[in-house]
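ok new one. same drill as before - C-alpha cells go in, u give me an amino acid for every spot. 98 of them this time. try not to just spam alanines like last time pls lmao
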C-alpha cells in the first residue's frame, strides 16, 4: 500500500493487532482468575487481570509495536479492553459454574 512505511505496519494492521492481543489477554485472564480465585470476592482475580495488562506490552513489542508508538490513549484502550473482556468472560464463568 502507498500508506505503508518501510519499517512499520499500516494503521489498520496496528489496530487489529492491538485489539486481538487485548481480547485474547482478557479472556485468558478470565480463565486464569476462574482457575485460581475462590470466587468473585477473591482479589487474586484482579491481580491476574493486572498481570495480563502488563504482560501485553512485551508481546506488543515483539509484534512490532514499541512503547514509543503507544500514546496515553492507546495504553488506556489496552487496559480497558482487557478489563472488559476479563469482566464479561469471568462473569459468565462464575454465573454458569464453569
Amino acid at each position: 500500500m502507498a500508506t505503508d512505511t518501510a519499517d512499520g505496519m499500516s494503521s489498520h494492521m496496528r489496530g487489529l493487532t492491538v485489539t486481538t492481543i487485548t481480547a485474547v489477554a482478557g479472556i485468558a485472564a478470565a480463565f486464569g482468575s476462574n482457575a485460581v480465585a475462590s470466587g468473585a470476592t477473591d482479589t487474586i482475580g484482579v491481580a491476574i487481570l493486572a498481570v495480563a495488562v502488563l504482560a501485553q506490552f512485551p508481546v506488543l513489542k515483539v509484534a512490532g509495536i514499541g512503547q514509543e508508538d503507544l500514546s496515553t490513549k492507546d495504553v488506556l484502550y489496552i487496559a480497558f479492553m482487557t478489563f472488559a473482556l476479563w469482566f464479561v468472560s469471568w462473569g459468565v464463568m462464575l454465573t454458569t459454574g464453569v
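Helices lie at 11-36, 44-62, 72-96. and btw The chain has one domain: 11-96.
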